[in-house]
């Protein structure tokens, strides 16, 4: 059995508002599908954030349909779960459209069953847990959920309730696992602890963390390898292919290579044969994270000019200027210097100060905020649309943590509701006590 594991395609994204970036994101997905088909995989997994937004443009839908059709023509099923970027609370999502066209098979807890050559459903109450099947192999999955939806009040993992590991089965999730989130933006905003993941699966096909991360089963004590392929394209500066720092000396680092080995920022996906994962690197447009430090405008300009020969044409360059310059600098003076470098895109970030600021050391988030504040920030760090989606459950979650002041809070909401009709709706929802699909699945015997 051989399959491809692809995650975080973010199709439709036009990074830096540049049309060429839209095409880059499409082409890297096309390449990964072409390689998978050429390798003769039995099926393909898309571990969430296939689209960058839940309502993709007609162009992005068209490109998705065209590329997914390559697999359909070869009778290779594509199994998918929704990520935080492309999930929706509407009854019909873009995933439903693709599923209706026979291009993907979605997995998870659903209101209606799916029964096909590649999908089976288990009924509980009025809802269904849909999983994939290929031969005697099973693929389980769940769309993205926030930590407060995944972990019950007494700290128990609902994921462990829903999914029991079994031989010849894969678990597909779009969540950040704390142990693998180190050095990523999710380090302090993880969704699950490693111990909250159910054991017993032969492979964990994860998405959400945009850096490639592997946790081999021999090292974790888990039955199967836990893998994040990372995003297919470079979605932010931390995923740069090259790092250039010019302080006292010019330092160059290729982050996709470490001697003969792959570097931490190599991009691509996995092909997994008999549960042995192999990373397939895909070359993407070079992306430079450049920092230049100097204490005069002339020094900054001279150092910048020296870097030119080390930066490939048609690449992306994000330049940070640092140092202390009397009167500061304005980036408009620096933009023309890169005009003839032949770059596809570049921008400046000005961190030059006009006076010396003394900082002893980096202050950690933990020293500044309490654990509750950090958890709250991580909940609020989602896009506003998601916050509104399950506002009632979120408020419930929030109020529980303010237990002593709970009555006071309710009163406050009620007072507001007399004035604003919008607040009244919120208050009603709080009283109703929301039951999510996860809880509904767990509670029904
Ligand atoms: Mn993503």
Structural class: alpha/beta
CATH class division of the domain at 2-232 and 267-281:
Alpha Beta
Please give the count of helices: 14
Look at the structure and name the CATH superfamily of the domain at 2-232 and 267-281: Metallo-dependent phosphatases
Head-to-tail CA distance between termini: 34 Å
Ions, cofactors and other ligands present here are: manganese (II) ion
Q: What is the CA-atom radius of gyration, in angstroms?
A: 24 Å
Chain-averaged pLDDT = 88
Give the overall shape: globular
**Low-confidence runs of at least 5 consecutive residues:** 405-409, 427-431
CATH architecture identity of the domain at 2-232 and 267-281: 4-Layer Sandwich
Helix content: 25-40%
Number of strands: 21
Strand content: 15-25%
Major β-sheet annotation? 8 strands, mixed
């Amino acid at each position: 059995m051989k399959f491809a594991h692809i995650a975080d395609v973010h199709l439709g994204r036009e990074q830096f508002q540049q049309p060429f970036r839209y095409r880059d994101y499409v082409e890297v997905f096309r390449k990964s599908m072409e390689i998978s088909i050429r390798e003769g995989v039995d099926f393909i997994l898309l571990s969430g954030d296939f689209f960058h937004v839940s309502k993709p443009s007609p162009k992005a839908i068209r490109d998705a349909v065209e590329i997914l059709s390559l697999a359909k023509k070869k009778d290779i099923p594509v199994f998918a779960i929704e990520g935080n970027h492309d999930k929706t609370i509407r009854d019909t999502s873009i995933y439903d459209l693709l599923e209706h066209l026979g291009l993907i098979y979605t997995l998870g807890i659903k209101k209606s069953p799916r029964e096909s050559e590649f999908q089976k459903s288990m009924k509980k109450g009025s809802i269904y847990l849909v999983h994939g099947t290929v031969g005697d192999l099973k693929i389980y999955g769940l769309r993205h959920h926030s930590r407060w939806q995944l972990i019950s009040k007494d700290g128990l993992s609902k994921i462990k309730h829903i999914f029991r590991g079994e031989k010849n089965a894969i678990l597909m999730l779009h969540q950040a696992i704390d142990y693998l989130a180190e050095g990523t933006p999710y380090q302090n905003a993880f969704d699950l602890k490693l111990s909250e993941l159910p054991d017993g699966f032969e492979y964990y096909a994860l998405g959400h963390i945009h850096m490639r991360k592997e946790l081999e089963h021999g090292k974790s004590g888990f039955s199967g390898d836990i893998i994040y392929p990372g995003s297919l394209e470079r979605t932010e500066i931390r995923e740069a292919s090259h790092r250039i720092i010019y302080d006292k000396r010019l330092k160059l680092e290729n982050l996709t290579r470490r001697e003969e080995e792959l570097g931490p920022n190599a991009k691509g996906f996995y092909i997994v044969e008999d549960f042995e994962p192999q990373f397939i690197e895909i070359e993407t447009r070079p992306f430079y994270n450049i920092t230049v430090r100097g204490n005069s405008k002339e020094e900054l300009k001279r150092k910048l000019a020296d870097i030119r020969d080390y930066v490939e044409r048609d690449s992306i360059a994000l330049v940070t200027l640092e140092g202390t310059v009397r009167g500061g600098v304005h980036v408009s003076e620096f933009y023309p210097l890169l005009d003839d470098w032949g770059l596809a895109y570049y921008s400046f970030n000005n961190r030059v100060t006009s006076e010396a600021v003394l900082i002893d050391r980096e202050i950690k988030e933990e020293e500044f905020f309490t654990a509750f504040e950090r958890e709250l920030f991580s909940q609020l760090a989602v896009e506003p649309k998601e916050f509104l989606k399950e506002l009632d459950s979120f408020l419930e979650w929030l109020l529980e943590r303010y237990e002593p002041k709970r009555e006071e809070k309710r009163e406050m909401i009620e007072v507001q509701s007399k004035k604003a009709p919008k607040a009244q709706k919120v208050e009603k929802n709080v009283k109703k006590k929301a039951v999510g699909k996860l809880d509904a699945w767990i509670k029904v015997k």
